[in-house]
Specification:
With 163 residues, the protein is of the alpha/beta class. Helix content is 33%, strand content 28%.
């Protein structure tokens, strides 16, 4: 019993000093991503999660770090259900697959069209899930084969997915 009291007392002291590895976040500041749009233009990557939340960096990792630093709130990428790569997407595919911020079960898509409204695209993709995930693409790249990523096309004010 004495050991438990000492442990609780030590935890209280460490908590008061802010030395515990736990931290609290205000739920109102959380920005869970549902769809992440990754664009590579020249030597820059742009990451857009909708609602005007976007960041640019020389690498995907730098763009994600800037997204977390510059946005008021806490951007939470493991909730992303879809990752959309705009053309040219070849280099972005490898960068996305190396990035640990994205969950392996997230669907992955390509598009040649600019994405004007991430929220509308997200709603469409929620009802049209991809058969190809980040994990599938990682496996294909590891085996040296070309992954077959579904393509999103803008059609009559909406979207269409071509497998």
């Amino acid at each position: 019993m004495k050991k438990l009291i000492w442990i609780l007392l030590a935890a209280a002291v460490l908590g008061a000093l802010g030395l515990l590895p736990f931290h609290a976040e205000d739920a109102a500041k959380l920005l869970p991503a549902k769809t992440v749009v990754v664009t590579r233009s020249g030597e820059a990557y742009t990451v857009d999660i909708g609602a005007g939340v976007r960041a640019v960096g020389r690498s995907l990792r730098e763009a994600l770090e800037r997204l977390r630093e510059e946005v008021t709130g806490w951007v939470f990428l493991p909730t992303a259900e879809q990752i959309v790569l705009t053309e040219p997407a070849d280099d972005a595919v490898e960068a996305v697959c190396r990035e640990d911020s994205f969950r392996p079960a997230a669907g992955i898509y390509r598009t040649a069209d600019p994405v004007p409204d991430v929220e509308a695209l997200s709603a469409y993709l929620a009802s049209h899930p991809s058969n190809i995930t980040v994990l599938d693409v990682r496996a294909a790249l590891a085996m040296g084969s070309e992954p077959r990523i579904p393509v999103i096309r803008a059609v009559d004010g909406g979207y269409r997915v071509d497998e």
